[in-house]
Write a structure and sequence with these properties.
The structure holds three protein chains of three kinds. By secondary structure, chain A is of the alpha/beta class. Helix content of chain A is about 35%, strand content about 15%. Chain A has three domains: about 45 residues, no CATH class; about 170 residues, Periplasmic binding protein-like II (D-Maltodextrin-Binding Protein, domain 2, 3-Layer(aba) Sandwich); about 160 residues, 3-Layer(aba) Sandwich (D-Maltodextrin-Binding Protein, domain 2). Chain A is built from 16 helices and ten strands. The longest helix of chain A is centred in the middle third of the chain and has 18 residues. Chain C is mostly helical. The chains are: A alpha/beta, B mainly alpha, C mainly alpha. Chains B and C meet through helix 2, helix 4, helix 5, helix 6 and helix 7 of B and helix 1, helix 3, helix 4, helix 5 and helix 7 of C.
Chain lengths: ~425, ~300, ~300
């Protein structure tokens, strides 16, 4: 058996490929021992040779540098993009995404246009998604990914660089996101949605004296005993803990200081005692159905919630609070193509398709999430009736990214601190 | 006793009618069945609520152009996946399990005991332990097997194999060896005795065990979920669970109802078939009894 | 009279099934140990398995131990044990009379009752939970009925992290699996024994304690084992009926740890720790069950 130092850390698809072959052989030989020894002996990894990006600061198979708005990252190119001018494949396009985060009608239009089928696999939270990709459990053509996890996926060779000749519509996107800090030169991603994280609530269920504008910080509602059993936080370690950090006055939501993160954790734990806090990612159904009165939620889900209201309720029963000075949590999500995508050309076509203004408008009409296209201004969305008057707080503008706090890439060690703190909260320890 | 009056006398009479027991039993059965009937009722709801009745419609079966079981491919694919998985699991478990049961019951000697223990352990292992073991194993060790339907099938067979062995073994033990001995006295080889004498006698038990396998597989959620790669290997229980993480409509109730109908039909057919077979072969007994008598 | 039975025949018959279980049940556990004892990759901080026992690393086990002390795993574990014990007590209280009645007194309704007893078996566990979630909603039938009977003034939020909702949910889900083996063993009790006891003037309860219970010992044991042990790994019942940290069970911690790159090692170690704990319980069942098989032979 080879020394473990040689085998760990250089994980890549090629190694998996090797393992796959050796495991098959071992199984055919019928020997468990053969199998085990095959797993230990690893050959030199062809992909780990350095292929730094233009700035030469990133390598494949090594931890990427942490991307920051004031310190952008060029992701390492660990594979070749597809050639120019290829015809799209036929068959099934496999998409990996959150539930209800893509309009079925828009998808149908794409299916008709390219005479293909789209198969949607959903994940409940981003950790689960990254795990599935990292373990190599499945291959997808298109993957929805939050920018803070991109660098690692690129360095691990799990996603493939884009050939932008297929994506002419990238020019429809906000200038700031055509060349984003998390992926200089948009080598791997196109931006999908922009959203803030705030507090959604039912104006008909909570007392006006407990809700904005009476309360300055709407997260208070998650500690108010009157909302016991009807209060939720997002099923996302970073979103929930970051909310607690801001509440406590810490504005560095990318800290890796265990002491500060622990304080945020303690704050979350207080909610267990106060309101039997629940965990869910479905503010857009729980609020309109009345299972939630207060729900930490994404601005897009809040718009979506309007469509899920029962027939006898109007949009005025929904309220959304985001820090009025704009100093709150704000993010964008992106699309990327899997390294082992079976239909890479079709996937490129889809990226171009979803950046088309008409398609994007239809899509927003279902998901409720704004897409950062220059032509789609908040004003036009309000005019079209996509965003109701009383939910203007859920509107995101380019300027908000300057004032708000983005959850950015963490080191693996830092990520573990956040996840451990989250596990402590979900365990209900100390309650 | 007299101090307690008529109630005391009634209670201490060993031959009284077990009215309390009867009441408990019927209450239990109502408790067990009524919620399911309500879930079925809501599959026919006109609106999208799953708790307030808004009138009868078949919207969630085929009426709704996007979200009904008929029109939403992910829903009816899940049904197909569940049934396919259950049938394949049965097909693999039957020969494997029956052979193992006969082998383990008759085999004396080194290796029998550990093999027997190994067979019993899966029965009492929590599914999450077993599912995460297989998940970690398929993603790091047996990487030749991709997650998805194949991995799920392997998982389901492993999960249900012991049931077949246990049920068939129970029957074998009650049969004893007299039949085989008699056959061999008359000159049959052990294999012939097995094939012509033992197998027919085992049939009801094999049948009952396969029904359990079918039920286990079609009901399984944890193993299916852990070993699923993408939407193409989603099963009905996964779909029901996932519906809690997205927009919920009565369509998922409709899916569960269809699944229930399919299962019940399959069982009725199977029972009728077995009854015919029994009449033909002149054996007696009730299928329900066979099944209920399964012993772990 | 001894017949020629080739010695190879029986082991050969048992071989394919045994090989299957070795390959897909025993070896995966070696995989879990290798992951629990492996090293993190520098990219994701994801756990890579270490196949060579000489290089095994106990960090994850230490973390589980710390977690048991600090409450991250300790609290859910204690909670899980409490829920399981309460649920088993209820299973016994509900399941025993039912199994006993159907086995002994069902009379001509026996077929019907058996079919009804078996019914939950054919209905997906998750569908039955779904049914309850719908019933227990604020505007669901349970609150409607309670209000109609003037038992409660306003709707009760049953899904508000209530321990008894979870325990009842567990009982509802698992009790059919408890009743069946119990029924099978009660059904086999020789009724003449019970009648003799009554003829001798022994009261119902004493007959039950001194005759019925001992004869059904094996059945009770089996029923308890196949109901209680899987309950320890349950994570979806409380997710559907509460999804609050307050009712978090050890299965939830395992599920989220195993399916996250940075916690995979701890997840594997948790799986092994739970297995170790349950082995003690399982061990008794396997021992007793083996002994019983021997008796029959």
């Amino acid at each position: 058996m080879a020394d473990r130092r040689e085998t760990t850390g250089r994980r890549s698809y090629d190694r998996r490929e090797f393992l796959r072959h050796s495991a098959t052989t071992a199984l055919l030989l019928g020997g468990g021992a053969t199998l085990l020894s095959a797993c230990g002996s690893d050959s030199k990894d062809p992909v780990s040779t350095s292929q730094g990006g233009p700035s030469g600061n990133a390598k494949c198979g090594e931890p990427p540098k942490l991307s920051r708005p004031n310190n952008p990252a060029t992701l390492p190119l660990c594979a070749d993009p597809i050639k120019d001018g290829l015809d799209p494949e036929s068959g099934t396009l496999k998409i990996f995404n959150y539930a209800d985060y893509l309009d079925p009608e828009t998808v149908k239009t794409f299916e008709k246009e390219y005479k293909v089928k789209v198969e949607l696999t959903t994940f409940a939270n981003i950790n689960e998604a990254v795990d599935k990709l990292q373990s190599g459990a499945a291959n997808f053509d298109l993957i929805n990914m939050s920018p803070d996890r991109l660098g690692t996926l690129a360095a691990a060779g799990l996603i493939q660089p884009l050939n932008k000749t297929y994506i002419a519509n990238l020019s429809n996107v906000w200038a700031s996101l055509q060349d984003p800090f998390y992926d200089k030169g948009s080598q791997y991603t196109i931006p999908y949605t922009i959203y803030t994280t705030g507090i959604g609530y039912r104006t008909d269920k909570v007392d006006p004296s407990d809700a904005p504008p009476t309360v300055a910080d709407a997260t208070d509602m998650l500690f108010n005993r009157k909302h016991k059993g009807y209060a939720f936080v997002l099923d996302d370690d970073r979103e929930a803990l970051s909310m607690a950090l801001l509440r406590l006055g810490f504005t560095d939501v990318n800290t890796e200081d265990p002491a500060i993160i622990a304080k945020a954790g303690t704050e979350l734990q207080r909610m267990v005692g106060a309101v039997n806090i629940k965990i869910s990612g479905q503010g857009y159904t729980k609020l309109p159905e009345g299972q939630a009165w207060v729900h930490q939620t994404w601005s897009g889900d809040m718009i979506n919630a309007v469509y899920n209201l029962p027939e006898d309720l109007g949009p005025e029963v929904l309220g959304y609070w985001f820090q009025p000075d704009g100093k709150g949590l704000i993010q964008s999500d992106s699309w990327t193509i899997g390294r082992k995508a079976a239909k890479p050309v079709l996937a490129h076509r889809f990226l171009n398709f979803i950046l088309d203004e008409t398609n994007a408008r239809t899509n927003i009409g279902f998901t409720g999430y704004q897409q950062p296209l220059t032509a789609i201004t908040p004003e036009t969305l309000i005019e079209d009736g996509v965003i109701p008057e009383n939910l203007l707080t859920a509107v995101v503008r380019e300027q908000d990214f300057v004032n708000g706090y983005e959850e950015l890439q963490l080191s693996p060690k830092g990520k573990k601190i956040w996840e451990d703190e989250w596990a402590k909260f979900t365990s209900g320890a100390g309650s | 006793m007299n101090i307690l009056g008529p109630i005391g006398r009634w209670w201490s009479n060993p031959w009284r009618k077990p009215r309390v027991l009867a009441a408990v039993t019927w209450l239990y059965l109502a408790w067990a069945i009524v919620p399911v009937i309500v879930a079925i009722q809501f599959s026919f709801n006109k609106g999208r609520s799953r708790s307030t009745w808004q009138g009868f419609s078949t919207r969630w079966y085929w009426g709704d152009p996007n979200r009904s079981v008929w029109h939403d491919a992910t829903l009816h694919n899940a049904l197909g996946n569940s049934i396919k998985l259950a049938l394949l699991t049965m097909a693999i478990c039957a020969p494997l399990g029956v052979a193992m049961a006969i082998g383990l019951t008759r085999w004396r000697g080194y290796g029998q005991k550990p093999a027997n223990m190994l067979m019993l352990v899966p029965l009492v292992t929590p599914e999450i332990v077993f599912a995460s073991a297989l998940y970690l194993c398929f993603t790091t060790m047996f990487t030749a097997i991709q997650l998805g339907s194949t991995a799920q099938l392997l998982g389901h067979v492993t999960l249900s194999l012991s049931t077949v062995v246990i049920v068939v073994r129970g029957r074998l033990l009650t049969l004893g060896r007299d039949f085989e001995d008699a056959a061999q006295d008359l000159g049959a080889t052990p294999m012939q005795a097995l094939r012509t004498i033992i197998m027919p006698l085992l049939s009801p038990a094999i049948f009952a065990s396969l029904m359990v396998v079918f039920a286990t597989s079609i009901d399984d959620f944890v193993v299916s979920q852990f070993l699923s790669a993408d939407a193409s290997s989603e099963t009905v229980p996964m779909k029901i669970y996932n519906s809690f993480r997205g927009t919920q409509t009565p369509a998922v109730n409709a899916l569960a109802t269809i699944m229930l109908a399919v299962t019940l039909l399959a069982i009725l057919f199977a029972m009728a078939g077995l009854k015919l077979w029994r009449r033909h072969n002149g054996t007696t007994g009730s299928v329900v009894e066979d099944f209920a008598g399964l012993d772990v | 009279m001894e017949h020629r039975r080739p010695r190879w025949l029986w082991p050969t018959l048992a071989l394919p099934g045994t090989a299957w279980l070795v390959l897909l049940f025993a070896i995966p556990f070696y995989g879990v140990v290798s992951i629990a004892s492996g090293y993190d990759d520098p990219l994701f901080g994801a756990r890579e398995p270490e196949w060579n026992p000489l290089h095994w690393n106990a960090d994850s086990f230490r973390e589980v131990w710390r977690g048991l002390e600090s409450g991250v795993f300790g609290q859910p574990f204690v909670r899980t044990c409490t829920y399981v014990v309460l649920a088993m007590a209820l299973c016994f209280i509900i399941g025993f009379p039912v199994a006993y009645y159907v086995a002994r007194f069902a009379g001509k309704r026996r077929g019907l009752m058996l079919a009804l007893l078996l019914a939950p078996f054919w209905i997906s566990y998750l569908m039955r939970m779904l049914a309850w979630v719908n019933l227990l909603q604020q505007d669901g039938y349970v609150n409607d009925i309670l209000a109609a009977l003037h038992i409660t003034s306003g709707p009760i939020n049953w899904l508000d992290a209530r321990w008894y909702t979870i325990v009842l949910g567990l009982v509802y889900g698992y009790v059919p699996f408890f009743i069946l083996p119990l029924f099978a063993s009660l059904d086999r009790i020789d009724t003449r024994l019970l009648e003799a006891s009554k003829d001798l003037g022994v009261g119902t309860i004493r007959t039950f304690i001194h005759v019925t219970l001992p004869s059904a010992r094996q059945g009770i044991l089996a029923a308890t084992a196949i109901t209680a042990l899987p309950m320890f790994g349950d994570y979806y019942t409380n997710q559907l009926l509460s999804s609050s940290p307050r009712t978090n069970m050890i299965g939830n911690q395992i599920q989220s740890a195993v399916q996250s790159p940075t916690s995979r090692g701890v997840g594997a170690a948790l799986v092994l720790s739970l297995t170790l704990f349950l082995t003690i319980l399982m061990g008794y069942y396997l021992y007793a069950s083996n002994a019983a098989t021997k008796d029959v032979r």
